[in-house]
Amino acid sequence: MLVKLRFILVFFCLCGFLNGCSKASENKDQGLLKDLKKYTRNYNRVNITEKTKKEADSVGRLLLSVANTKQQRDVLINYIFYVNDNRKYIDELLIGSKKSKDIRDEGYANYLLANMFNKTFQKDSTYYYLTKSEFLLSSIKDSIVLQDVYVFKAVLLLNDKIYTEGEAQIIKSMALNRDQKSLRLKYTESLCLTDALKGLEQFEEALVEADRCLKYLEDPEIKKFYIDDILRLNKISVYTTIADIYLKQKKYIKSKELIIETIKQNFTKNKSEYDPILLSKLLLFLAEVNIELKQYDQVEKSLKENIDVQLKYNNLHDYYSAKTLLAKYYFLVHKEPSALNLVQEVISYAKENKDLAIERDALLVLLAFYKNNNQDNLNRYLELNHLIQNENIAAKNMFTRMSFESDDLLKTNKQLQKQKRLVIKIAIGVFTLAIIIFFIILFRQKVKEMSLIKLFEKDTHKYYDSILNIQNELSQVRILERTQMAKELHDGVLNRLFMTRFLLMQLDQKSYVEHQDSLINEIKKIEEQIRDVSHTLIKDNEFKIKEFDQLLEDLIEIQNRNQKVKFSLFMDENISFDNIDIKYKIHIYRIIQECLQNVHKHAKATVCKVSFMFINQYSFRVIVQDNGVGLNTTIRGKGLGLSSIESRVKLMNSKLIVSSKKTKGTKILFKIIMDL
């Protein structure tokens, strides 16, 4: 009892310690998230350098290392929105929100995915993720983020010049959270509504909204959302829109004055990467105003500056729009060849890239100033008008289709919720049924005991069958062992007998007395070897080799009794035979023995050298080389000659290399890797 109580106390102490560690870790993360949030708010995304990019990447990695909490995801959303919208960060937000079952953050992640795809002009993917975001946010009635979705949809529609539907989306956004709307969102809604009204040619209303945008930008509260550079660029954007409205109202003097004042007051020395783009837009409007006022002095310069900027940023649509206006200017100042060249260049680009609006504007210039092919140009102009209208209809249809799919998705979700509840009920029923079946099976266990006994008997029969199979396999092993012994007799005993017989044939009466003792010793060794093989067959012992290098030297000495061939042995002193497996020693010895016999029988050589060459501490190379007549390496001899050598080499996981040239001798080589 005392032990149990002590265990419980230790357990609670440990839990308290872990809880304290957890709280300390949470406090540390909260401090870090506070710093990261401050960084994202102060990040200057206008003037980006390589240094700031590296810093931003480091901050992103640090943010991903923080535990997945609501606060972490909020900071991550700001980081993606203001600093780096790389796909990996959005995916992490999506994964984290799904793990936490946070539908709001999941909806925001889909919104950010739509924003990412919009930057690469993938409209279908953009609409898909926007619709998904709208569906998720609508399901929890989160009107705050839903406002951003409506504004985003409005921007997409306005970019496609679908002004009526764009205005409708802005009005939907404005209707939400009127009392709790942030100044940033109010400004964004007002700016989008200005563009929509301008596109619908409701110019006076558009000017009122543009004036409201400027008031929002002058409000000190807006600095909570935008740094100074972003505020300046937004002001330039609003002034540019107002100048364009004046231009469309044919208030050319007011438009010109506003453009000049905007350029003078808002373009600083420390330019951002967006300054040249905005400045080029103003210069384009200024050139257009000067053409209408017939003040041609600065028109060509302004347009060429605009063209250079658009080309630098690869904005080809605006690039060729500026060239179209430049062509109009050339017609007005009677530079017809230059004008025609520009118009043809613009039309060629437009046809190649299917830019219908650019081609239509270029044809309009031709119809106004150039009378040749007037009927063909007019027909093409009317055709382009028709095609552009069809494009607008197609874009409207796509938006309608996506809206329909959104409604359909909501209905599908409701059906899935019903199905989910039904599945839960079915699961409970199945679980209950499973418990009942379990008890039934448990009750029937006694009935199955007899069948288990029968199965046991079958297993016993299988056991005896397996014993018989093992005995058969043992018989096969014995047969294999006998084959190996036969090979041993061939390679060992017969080769020695052959050598003895060969020496006897060469001896005369005088030399017989000299070699009598050595021949008797050789026959004794053959007897001993036969006895060893016999003992191996009876006792099943391993064939052991001691002092392997001495055995090799004895073999060479025996071969040198034949005075027709001079045999020599070289063994690198770095080679140690102690680490070689006993079986490998046997194979090496028999291979060399067989090679030397082949030299005696077939080579007609005068010199034969056996070399053991050191490679490294784990391997060496064996070479047997003579200066005889050579042999045909493409033919393997029958019986247990070269084929026997090759089989032994394979048993050592090596490869036999035989090289020979006629009258220049034969070289046999194989490599040994020590089995440590």
From TrEMBL:
This is histidine kinase. Its EC number is 2.7.13.3. SMART domains: HATPase_c. PANTHER family: NITRATE/NITRITE SENSOR PROTEIN NARX-RELATED (PTHR24421), NITRATE_NITRITE SENSOR PROTEIN NARQ (PTHR24421:SF10). The keyword Glycoprotein does not apply. Residues 1-24 form the signal peptide. It comes from Myroides marinus. One of its GO terms (biological process) is phosphorelay signal transduction system.
